[in-house]
Design goal:
The chain is mainly alpha-helical. It has helices spanning 5-14, 21-42, 73-77; strands spanning 83-84, 87-88. It has a two-stranded antiparallel sheet with strand order 1-2. The chain is elongated.
Length: 95
């Protein structure tokens, strides 16, 4: 795949980047070099390489999934302007 000057202008237009004629001429070989490197990466045989999620081995430290109410209801309701029967008191919205 290769890029020409018109393609560079279209990419610049879609990116909302102002590119002069001289800059477009300079970008053509640069983008072609980048695409060449990407094609080289596609030629590498990775079939025997295990997929990685990180460069260093990680072990997740997970806590037990236990459902609790937090036992802080009274502390939370102490911040409420109005608390009624263990709940936040709110003004009536619908008549």
């Amino acid at each position: 795949m290769s890029v020409d000057k018109e393609t560079v202008k279209k990419i610049a237009s879609l990116s909302r980047i102002a590119v002069t004629e001289a800059e477009a001429d300079a970008l053509v070989p640069e983008l072609n070099n980048i695409l060449g490197w990407v094609e080289q990466l596609g030629e590498v045989d990775c079939s025997k390489v295990e997929p990685m999620t990180a460069v260093i081995p990680n072990k997740l430290r997970l806590r037990d999934d236990e459902v609790t109410d937090g036992n802080v209801r009274d502390k939370v309701l102490a911040n409420a302007p109005v608390a009624e029967h263990g709940f936040f008191g709110v003004p009536k919205v619908i008549e």
